[in-house]
Every structure is written in structure tokens, then in C-alpha cells.
Amino acid sequence: MFADLGHFSKLSLRVPESIFWPVYVIATLATIVGSQASISATFSLISQCMSLNCFPPVKIIHTSNHVHGQIYIPEINWILMLLCLSVTIGFRDTELIGNAFVLAVITVMFVTTCLMFLIIVTVWNRSILLAALFTILFGSVELLYLLACLTNVSYGGWFPLVLSLFILSIMAIWHYGTSRKLCYELENSVQLDSILSCSSDLGIVRVPGIALVFSSTPGGIPPMFSHFITNFPAFHRIIIFVSIQILAVPKVPPEDRFLITAVGPRDSGFFGCIVRFGYKDDRDDACEFENQLLKKVADHLLRDASEISAIHWPSDVLVDDISTPSESNEEREVPVREEVRELLVQREAGVAYMTGHTCVKSHSSSSFLKVIAIDLIYGFLRRNCRRTITVRLGLPHASLIQVGIVYHV
């Protein structure tokens, strides 16, 4: 800038040849440090968008046991590298790259000012007049800069506009498809009483074993389970509906990880379980997960008993070790011992993992744009994004049952 103003000559700004390479290395390192802020901000934005169901699931690596926001996303890091190389190789001109960069910066400033209007009104609880004055004061100046930068759209400024429009379309379609999928699951969730009442009419039989049915809706029965028993009228003697939650803490204590609830009558064999993990917890040991879950179910069954002795789990469980200090509690503890004994017997028969393999489709009466958004784009994203349940727990394929079902949204 000073050279353009004539304050310094070109010779005074030129790097001597003797120190050219050291200066070149330092300048490159400074560029890397400066770009790291943008890279870290991108990781944080992607993580927040995933929490709001506005971005497909990607692998997030938490690099700190204390700072929740210190993350690394390998896929996004590679995409950023490819975009940087594409821009550098494609434009090959610092002026064109500068036009694209300036338009991106001023657009971010103008959007931030518009969002500040919402922050002032909803978060700070200030008057709408004050928020409007702030937006008009700063937004008018930034709008003038934005209109001036729009003249460079044909000279490199088109790239950030096209890229932002592409990312916005992906986020909007993913959010719309995910929200429609969740609405379908809530609207088509069934009650356990209706399943039990129709068991005799449908000829449903109970087979030995335990089934862990994974659901994305805590406290409800997923549509894929009713779809399964409709086409295959049989299910295990003990059914546990499992919902996984990832908390914003590094590790969850084992005693607080499982929240067991009874679903339906006590003798029906149906349970609900919410499993809470921290972002640094190991989740790839399915055998240990199974042992801890079933032990918590046994503890839930024994909770109504007045007094119990220690239970050794899982191989040397002695149900007869339950102490009966008084005759008044004996009649209540006998069914409890039988339920725990039944749980152990069914565990020896085998444990199966049931997950849903859903396919979201639009209705036949949907518009052309909805067909493109749901059937093509959203379907493509779901087929290529990470499978959350099987990846998080490392479920064994030999015991995994995937139930295919089509959601017409």
C-alpha cells in the first residue's frame, strides 16, 4: 500500500537475494498459521450444522479431553485442500482471486449484520427500534460495499457465489429430508398395546433370545419394528429399544450411561434404554456394551426387591443369591428372581442387533422439485454418509439384522 502511495521505492520493499529463501519459508509458515483460523472455524461450523440436522454426518475427531470445540474433520480438511488447489490452478491470477475473496468477505460482513438484528431482539431482549437502527447504520455502509463488489462477479467474483449457493442447497435439502423423515417416524410410531393385542390375530410367536432394536426416537417404538413383525410374524422373548445420545462431555461414568425404563406390562419382555456416550468414550466394543446393558436391565428388574446381594455378571450370575430378609417380601421377590433368571436364559440363547435400513422416497403426487430434492439429492447423500449406529458400536455382522423400509414423505 505504501509503495502505491509513493512513500517507499520498489528497491526499499524488495527482499535481498541473500535472505530470500528464509523470508520465503517464514512467509509460507505465516500463511499456514493464518489459514488455520479459517480451517478451525469451518470444522466448528460443520459440527454445529450437524447438531441442527443441517449437514450430512461426517467423522469428527475430538483432539482434546477438556475442550469440546477442539475438533478435526478429515473429510472437510481434504475438501478444503482440493478447493484451494482448484482455485489456485483455475484462476492463476492474484487479481481474480482477490475479487473472489473480497466479495466473500463483504458478503459475510453484511450477513453478520443482518443476523445481529435477531441477536439484539431475541437474545439481548432489546427493542426492535434499536435493532433496526443498528442494522440500518452498519448495513447501509456494508450494502454499498457489496453492490460495488458485485461489479466484479464476472471477474472471479462468481466463484464464492456459486460455491455458497451449492453448499446452501445441500444443507437445505438435507435439513428438509431429515425433518420429513423424523416427522414420518413420529406419525407412524406404534403403541406396544396395539402390538400385543394383535399378536394372536397375526399369529406372532416369541422366539428365544434377546433383540436390541436401535431407534432414533427415544421412548417410542420405531416404524421399522412394526414393519418387521408384519412381514415376519415373530420376535424375541425380550426386546430392548435402544436410543443413543452423544453428550457434550468427554466421558460419561458407567453408572450414568444407561437409563432403563419398562415399556408396557412387566411380563411382556419389552424395555426401553437410552445410552449416553461422551465424545471421547470408546464405542467400538460391542461385547462390553452388551454386558453392561443387560446388567443394567437386571438391576432394573431387581430394583423393586427390598434387599439383594451382589450379582456376578455375566458368566457366574447366581440368581439364588438374592437375600430374603423377611417373609413379607418373599412373595414379591420370587417373581423378580424368575425375571432375572429368564433374562439370563434368553441371553444364553443369543443376542441380536436390529437396525433400520430406511429409504426415503417422495409421494407419487409430489412436485418435480420435491422428487429431485428427496429421491435424487437426499437419497444420494444418505447412501454416502456415515452409518452412525454400526460405526459407533462396531456391531458384529453375524448378529446384525437390518430391516429395510421405505418412508414416503
From TrEMBL:
GO molecular function: potassium ion transmembrane transporter activity
Location within or outside the cell: Membrane
Transmembrane segments: 20-50, 97-121, 128-148, 154-174
Membrane topology: Multi-pass membrane protein
A single cellular component GO annotation: membrane
Domain K+ potassium transporter C-terminal: from-to ranges: 208-408
Name of a matching Pfam family: K_trans_C
Signal peptide bounds: none
Domain of life: Eukaryota
Domain K+ potassium transporter integral membrane, chain residue ranges per copy: 15-196
Family: Belongs to the HAK/KUP transporter (TC 2.A.72.3) family.
Protein name as it appears in the record: Potassium transporter 13
